[in-house]
Amino acid sequence: MNWNLKAFDTLSVQELYAILKVRVDVFVVEQNCPYPELDDKDKLAQHLFLTNEKGEVIAYCRLLPQNVSFKEVSIGRVLVNPNFRKQDFGRELLQKALDVLNEQKERAIKIEAQYYLRNFYASFGFEECSEPFLEDGIKHVEMLRKN
Asked: For the N-acetyltransferase domain, which residue ranges apply (predicted)?
């Protein structure tokens, strides 16, 4: 297995396809949530992902700079491929994302977390900073982590 951190312009066609496929599989199909998955933020993001020897994306998130989603940097589209869940890849992914942002000296990170995952994010130091709200029919909450 191999961890990758790449800017949009450095992703290969195969990597981009694998990332978009798993994102659609999880966020559109699995969550039964038709919404515009491609939002132009990908072009500004760093893409952190774990692949196996077949090139399948096992875990993925995108790291967004300040003033794209929030005034703070953000972590979004956090997922673990359904075929690889219950193996702690989600914890490993989030820790790697935080390590990258810490190396870049980011002081605050804001996310929109699915509400049922708020305790998972809290275990990494994120604190709820909004009331729960619906985003594309799914309950979310904004969370902030300060270093």
From this structure: 6-147
Q: How far apart are CA 140 and CA 21, in angstroms?
A: 23
Q: What secondary structure letter does DSSP report for 88?
A: S
Its CATH class, for the domain covering 2-109, is alpha beta
CB 107 within 8 A of CB 147: yes
Residue identified by tokens 């890849």 is 89
d(CA 88, CA 125): 18
| pTM score of the predicted model | 0.93
Using the CB atoms, write b or e for 120-137: b if 16+ within 10 Å.
ebeebebeeeeeeeeeee
